[in-house]
Amino acid sequence: MQWMAPLLLLACVSSCGGSGMETRREALRLAMAEGDQAKVSEAARAASEFEGTDPALDRMLGDALANHLFRGAEGLALLQANPLPEDPAWVAATADAALRAKDLVVLDGMMRAQGVQLNLDLPALEQVQRLSLQDRTVGHQLLVEVDRRCALVDQRPLLGRQEVDMPSSPSLERALRLLGATEVVVTRTHLVFSPKSPRERSFQCKTAWLPEGETSGIPSPLPPKGVLVAVTDGTIRGYLEIQSREGGEWVMASDDAQQAGRWLNAAYLLDAMLTAPDAEAKVLERYGSGLALPADQRVGPPKRTEKPLWED
Protein backbone atom coordinates (compact mmCIF):
# COMPACT_ATOMS: atom_id res chain seq x y z
CA MET A 1 0.00 0.00 0.00
CA GLN A 2 3.01 2.29 -0.08
CA TRP A 3 1.96 3.44 -3.57
CA MET A 4 -0.98 5.21 -1.94
CA ALA A 5 1.24 7.68 -0.05
CA PRO A 6 1.77 10.08 -3.00
CA LEU A 7 -1.95 9.99 -3.73
CA LEU A 8 -2.73 10.83 -0.11
CA LEU A 9 -0.19 13.68 -0.21
CA LEU A 10 -1.72 15.10 -3.38
CA ALA A 11 -5.17 14.84 -1.83
CA CYS A 12 -3.96 16.74 1.24
CA VAL A 13 -2.38 19.48 -0.90
CA SER A 14 -5.69 19.98 -2.65
CA SER A 15 -7.95 19.72 0.40
CA CYS A 16 -5.69 20.91 3.25
CA GLY A 17 -3.66 23.57 1.47
CA GLY A 18 -5.97 26.40 2.51
CA SER A 19 -5.84 25.41 6.12
CA GLY A 20 -2.03 25.11 6.03
CA MET A 21 -1.70 28.50 4.40
CA GLU A 22 -3.97 30.16 6.95
CA THR A 23 -2.06 28.58 9.80
CA ARG A 24 1.27 29.84 8.48
CA ARG A 25 -0.14 33.26 7.70
CA GLU A 26 -1.40 33.55 11.28
CA ALA A 27 1.98 32.39 12.60
CA LEU A 28 3.65 35.10 10.51
CA ARG A 29 1.21 37.72 11.73
CA LEU A 30 1.89 36.82 15.37
CA ALA A 31 5.66 36.83 14.84
CA MET A 32 5.50 40.30 13.24
CA ALA A 33 3.33 41.60 16.06
CA GLU A 34 5.87 40.29 18.59
CA GLY A 35 8.70 41.88 16.67
CA ASP A 36 11.26 39.10 17.19
CA GLN A 37 13.34 39.12 14.01
CA ALA A 38 14.35 35.45 14.29
CA LYS A 39 10.74 34.37 14.67
CA VAL A 40 9.66 36.57 11.76
CA SER A 41 12.37 35.03 9.60
CA GLU A 42 11.31 31.49 10.49
CA ALA A 43 7.61 32.22 9.98
CA ALA A 44 8.24 34.01 6.68
CA ARG A 45 10.28 31.09 5.40
CA ALA A 46 7.46 28.68 6.23
CA ALA A 47 4.77 30.93 4.75
CA SER A 48 6.77 31.51 1.56
CA GLU A 49 5.82 27.99 0.40
CA PHE A 50 2.41 29.50 -0.39
CA GLU A 51 3.75 32.65 -2.06
CA GLY A 52 1.70 33.53 -5.11
CA THR A 53 -1.43 31.72 -3.96
CA ASP A 54 -3.02 34.44 -1.85
CA PRO A 55 -2.63 38.26 -2.23
CA ALA A 56 -3.14 38.90 1.50
CA LEU A 57 -0.34 36.47 2.37
CA ASP A 58 1.94 38.01 -0.26
CA ARG A 59 1.34 41.47 1.18
CA MET A 60 2.20 40.19 4.63
CA LEU A 61 5.33 38.49 3.29
CA GLY A 62 6.33 41.73 1.57
CA ASP A 63 5.92 43.67 4.79
CA ALA A 64 7.90 41.07 6.73
CA LEU A 65 10.76 40.97 4.22
CA ALA A 66 11.07 44.74 3.84
CA ASN A 67 10.23 46.11 7.25
CA HIS A 68 11.25 43.34 9.65
CA LEU A 69 14.08 41.57 7.84
CA PHE A 70 15.39 44.70 6.03
CA ARG A 71 15.24 43.14 2.56
CA GLY A 72 13.66 46.24 1.13
CA ALA A 73 13.68 45.57 -2.60
CA GLU A 74 12.30 42.03 -2.24
CA GLY A 75 9.54 43.11 0.07
CA LEU A 76 8.65 46.14 -2.02
CA ALA A 77 8.26 43.94 -5.11
CA LEU A 78 5.76 41.69 -3.33
CA LEU A 79 3.81 44.64 -1.96
CA GLN A 80 3.62 46.34 -5.35
CA ALA A 81 2.56 43.10 -7.03
CA ASN A 82 -0.41 42.87 -4.65
CA PRO A 83 -1.68 46.45 -4.33
CA LEU A 84 -4.44 47.44 -1.93
CA PRO A 85 -4.29 51.26 -1.90
CA GLU A 86 -7.51 51.61 0.11
CA ASP A 87 -5.84 49.79 3.03
CA PRO A 88 -3.79 52.14 5.28
CA ALA A 89 -1.68 49.19 6.43
CA TRP A 90 -0.62 48.40 2.85
CA VAL A 91 0.11 52.08 2.18
CA ALA A 92 2.30 52.37 5.30
CA ALA A 93 4.11 49.08 4.64
CA THR A 94 4.79 49.99 1.01
CA ALA A 95 6.04 53.48 1.86
CA ASP A 96 8.34 52.02 4.54
CA ALA A 97 9.56 49.39 2.10
CA ALA A 98 10.30 52.04 -0.53
CA LEU A 99 12.32 53.99 2.03
CA ARG A 100 14.34 50.89 2.95
CA ALA A 101 14.79 49.96 -0.71
CA LYS A 102 15.96 53.53 -1.42
CA ASP A 103 13.37 53.73 -4.18
CA LEU A 104 12.62 57.45 -4.13
CA VAL A 105 10.33 57.29 -7.16
CA VAL A 106 7.95 54.89 -5.42
CA LEU A 107 8.26 56.69 -2.08
CA ASP A 108 7.51 60.06 -3.67
CA GLY A 109 4.51 58.62 -5.52
CA MET A 110 3.13 57.03 -2.36
CA MET A 111 3.46 60.28 -0.43
CA ARG A 112 1.92 62.41 -3.17
CA ALA A 113 -1.05 60.04 -3.25
CA GLN A 114 -1.50 60.85 0.45
CA GLY A 115 -1.25 64.59 -0.17
CA VAL A 116 2.30 64.87 1.18
CA GLN A 117 5.08 66.41 -0.90
CA LEU A 118 8.51 65.42 0.35
CA ASN A 119 11.68 67.40 -0.22
CA LEU A 120 13.83 64.69 -1.81
CA ASP A 121 16.87 66.99 -1.54
CA LEU A 122 16.59 67.03 2.25
CA PRO A 123 20.05 66.36 3.73
CA ALA A 124 18.44 64.20 6.45
CA LEU A 125 16.92 61.82 3.89
CA GLU A 126 20.01 59.64 3.75
CA GLN A 127 20.23 59.64 7.55
CA VAL A 128 16.65 58.43 7.92
CA GLN A 129 17.21 55.79 5.22
CA ARG A 130 20.25 54.51 7.07
CA LEU A 131 18.38 54.36 10.35
CA SER A 132 15.47 52.53 8.70
CA LEU A 133 17.87 49.68 7.87
CA GLN A 134 18.89 49.40 11.52
CA ASP A 135 15.62 49.93 13.38
CA ARG A 136 12.30 48.52 12.19
CA THR A 137 10.39 51.23 14.08
CA VAL A 138 11.93 53.88 11.80
CA GLY A 139 9.87 54.40 8.67
CA HIS A 140 8.44 56.97 6.31
CA GLN A 141 6.55 58.77 9.10
CA LEU A 142 9.83 59.86 10.68
CA LEU A 143 10.97 61.19 7.32
CA VAL A 144 7.71 63.12 6.90
CA GLU A 145 8.09 64.62 10.40
CA VAL A 146 11.73 65.59 9.88
CA ASP A 147 10.91 67.06 6.47
CA ARG A 148 8.07 69.16 7.93
CA ARG A 149 10.22 70.49 10.75
CA CYS A 150 13.16 71.22 8.47
CA ALA A 151 10.87 73.07 6.04
CA LEU A 152 9.90 75.46 8.84
CA VAL A 153 13.47 75.94 10.04
CA ASP A 154 14.92 76.43 6.56
CA GLN A 155 12.45 79.21 5.74
CA ARG A 156 14.14 81.46 8.29
CA PRO A 157 15.03 84.79 6.64
CA LEU A 158 18.74 85.07 5.93
CA LEU A 159 18.60 88.87 6.36
CA GLY A 160 16.81 91.14 8.83
CA ARG A 161 17.94 89.65 12.15
CA GLN A 162 16.73 91.99 14.94
CA GLU A 163 18.02 92.30 18.49
CA VAL A 164 15.63 91.30 21.28
CA ASP A 165 17.87 91.04 24.39
CA MET A 166 15.19 89.90 26.83
CA PRO A 167 15.30 87.06 29.37
CA SER A 168 13.82 83.79 28.22
CA SER A 169 11.18 82.04 30.31
CA PRO A 170 10.42 78.48 31.39
CA SER A 171 6.85 79.21 30.24
CA LEU A 172 7.87 80.30 26.73
CA GLU A 173 6.72 77.21 24.88
CA ARG A 174 3.49 77.09 26.90
CA ALA A 175 2.83 80.70 25.96
CA LEU A 176 3.54 80.05 22.29
CA ARG A 177 1.11 77.13 22.26
CA LEU A 178 -1.48 79.22 24.07
CA LEU A 179 -1.18 81.99 21.50
CA GLY A 180 -1.82 79.49 18.73
CA ALA A 181 1.48 77.86 17.76
CA THR A 182 0.89 74.53 16.06
CA GLU A 183 4.59 73.78 15.68
CA VAL A 184 7.50 74.67 17.94
CA VAL A 185 10.76 73.30 16.55
CA VAL A 186 14.02 73.51 18.48
CA THR A 187 17.21 73.31 16.43
CA ARG A 188 20.92 73.87 16.75
CA THR A 189 22.79 75.98 14.23
CA HIS A 190 26.07 74.58 15.62
CA LEU A 191 26.51 70.87 16.20
CA VAL A 192 28.78 70.12 19.13
CA PHE A 193 28.59 66.32 18.96
CA SER A 194 28.98 63.67 16.30
CA PRO A 195 25.78 62.98 14.34
CA LYS A 196 26.80 59.31 14.26
CA SER A 197 26.60 58.96 18.01
CA PRO A 198 23.67 56.64 18.87
CA ARG A 199 22.94 58.54 22.07
CA GLU A 200 23.00 61.97 20.46
CA ARG A 201 21.47 61.34 17.05
CA SER A 202 20.51 64.36 15.00
CA PHE A 203 18.97 65.14 11.62
CA GLN A 204 20.44 67.66 9.22
CA CYS A 205 18.30 70.37 7.66
CA LYS A 206 19.79 72.80 5.15
CA THR A 207 20.48 75.50 7.74
CA ALA A 208 20.45 73.73 11.11
CA TRP A 209 20.30 70.42 12.96
CA LEU A 210 17.36 68.76 14.68
CA PRO A 211 18.72 66.93 17.72
CA GLU A 212 16.55 63.89 18.40
CA GLY A 213 14.60 64.28 21.62
CA GLU A 214 14.81 68.08 21.54
CA THR A 215 12.49 68.75 18.61
CA SER A 216 9.38 69.09 20.74
CA GLY A 217 10.60 71.22 23.64
CA ILE A 218 13.07 73.92 24.60
CA PRO A 219 15.87 72.23 26.56
CA SER A 220 17.05 73.46 29.92
CA PRO A 221 19.91 73.95 30.42
CA LEU A 222 20.68 75.08 26.90
CA PRO A 223 23.50 73.51 24.87
CA PRO A 224 26.73 75.58 24.76
CA LYS A 225 25.91 77.36 21.49
CA GLY A 226 22.26 77.92 22.33
CA VAL A 227 19.26 77.03 20.19
CA LEU A 228 17.14 78.42 17.41
CA VAL A 229 13.39 78.07 17.99
CA ALA A 230 11.16 78.10 14.93
CA VAL A 231 7.45 78.73 15.48
CA THR A 232 4.36 78.71 13.28
CA ASP A 233 0.59 78.76 13.67
CA GLY A 234 0.08 77.66 10.08
CA THR A 235 -0.10 81.25 8.83
CA ILE A 236 2.90 83.16 10.13
CA ARG A 237 6.38 82.03 11.09
CA GLY A 238 8.75 83.35 13.72
CA TYR A 239 12.27 82.59 14.92
CA LEU A 240 14.00 83.10 18.26
CA GLU A 241 17.71 82.78 19.05
CA ILE A 242 18.16 81.74 22.69
CA GLN A 243 21.55 81.60 24.41
CA SER A 244 22.93 81.17 27.89
CA ARG A 245 24.76 84.05 29.48
CA GLU A 246 25.58 85.15 32.99
CA GLY A 247 22.33 85.51 34.86
CA GLY A 248 20.28 83.01 32.88
CA GLU A 249 18.96 82.23 29.43
CA TRP A 250 18.24 85.12 27.07
CA VAL A 251 16.42 85.59 23.80
CA MET A 252 19.10 87.44 21.89
CA ALA A 253 17.51 87.96 18.48
CA SER A 254 14.53 87.28 16.25
CA ASP A 255 13.32 87.94 12.73
CA ASP A 256 10.65 90.20 14.33
CA ALA A 257 11.78 91.66 17.64
CA GLN A 258 8.46 93.31 18.57
CA GLN A 259 6.52 90.14 17.94
CA ALA A 260 9.07 88.19 19.99
CA GLY A 261 8.64 90.70 22.82
CA ARG A 262 4.90 90.04 22.86
CA TRP A 263 5.47 86.29 23.11
CA LEU A 264 7.94 86.75 25.96
CA ASN A 265 5.64 89.08 27.90
CA ALA A 266 2.88 86.49 27.63
CA ALA A 267 5.32 83.91 29.02
CA TYR A 268 6.32 86.23 31.88
CA LEU A 269 2.67 86.61 32.84
CA LEU A 270 2.31 82.84 32.95
CA ASP A 271 5.43 82.73 35.14
CA ALA A 272 3.96 85.28 37.53
CA MET A 273 0.66 83.46 37.89
CA LEU A 274 2.31 80.07 38.32
CA THR A 275 -0.44 77.46 38.66
CA ALA A 276 -3.38 79.85 39.03
CA PRO A 277 -6.41 78.21 37.37
CA ASP A 278 -7.20 81.34 35.36
CA ALA A 279 -3.63 82.02 34.25
CA GLU A 280 -4.18 81.11 30.60
CA ALA A 281 -7.44 83.04 30.47
CA LYS A 282 -5.65 86.13 31.82
CA VAL A 283 -2.92 85.81 29.19
CA LEU A 284 -5.47 85.55 26.38
CA GLU A 285 -7.39 88.47 27.82
CA ARG A 286 -4.30 90.66 27.83
CA TYR A 287 -2.53 89.49 24.68
CA GLY A 288 -5.29 88.01 22.58
CA SER A 289 -5.00 84.87 20.51
CA GLY A 290 -2.76 84.36 17.52
CA LEU A 291 1.00 84.62 17.12
CA ALA A 292 0.92 87.72 14.94
CA LEU A 293 1.47 91.09 16.57
CA PRO A 294 -1.45 93.40 15.70
CA ALA A 295 -0.37 96.24 13.44
CA ASP A 296 -1.59 98.93 15.87
CA GLN A 297 0.77 97.58 18.56
CA ARG A 298 3.94 98.16 16.54
CA VAL A 299 5.48 101.12 18.31
CA GLY A 300 9.24 100.55 18.36
CA PRO A 301 11.75 98.22 20.00
CA PRO A 302 10.36 95.36 22.15
CA LYS A 303 9.48 96.30 25.71
CA ARG A 304 8.94 94.28 28.84
CA THR A 305 5.44 94.91 30.08
CA GLU A 306 5.77 91.87 32.36
CA LYS A 307 8.85 90.96 34.33
CA PRO A 308 10.26 87.44 34.46
CA LEU A 309 9.43 85.69 37.72
CA TRP A 310 13.08 85.63 38.88
CA GLU A 311 13.61 89.39 38.47
CA ASP A 312 12.91 91.92 41.20
Q: What's the short story on this structure?
A:
By secondary structure, the chain is an alpha+beta fold. Helices cover 47% and strands 12% of the residues.
What is the N-to-C order of secondary-structure elements (H for helix, E for strand)? Answer: HHHHHHHHEHEEEEEEHH
Strand content: 5-15%
Q: Specify the helix fraction band.
A: 40-55%
What can be said about the biggest beta sheet? 5 strands, antiparallel
What does the model show?
This protein is an alpha+beta fold. The chain has two domains: 19-117; 162-297, no CATH class. It has helices spanning 4-34, 37-47, 55-67, 72-81, 88-101, 104-113, 124-132, 140-154, 172-178, 257-273, 279-287; strands at residues 162-167, 183-187, 202-204, 209-211, 227-232, 237-245, 248-254. It has a five-stranded antiparallel β-sheet. Strand 6 (237-245) and strand 7 form a beta hairpin. Helix 10 packs antiparallel against helix 11 (279-287). The longest helix has 31 residues, at 4-34. The protein is elongated and about 75 Å long. 35% of the residues are buried. Residues 1-18 and 192-199 have low confidence and may be disordered.
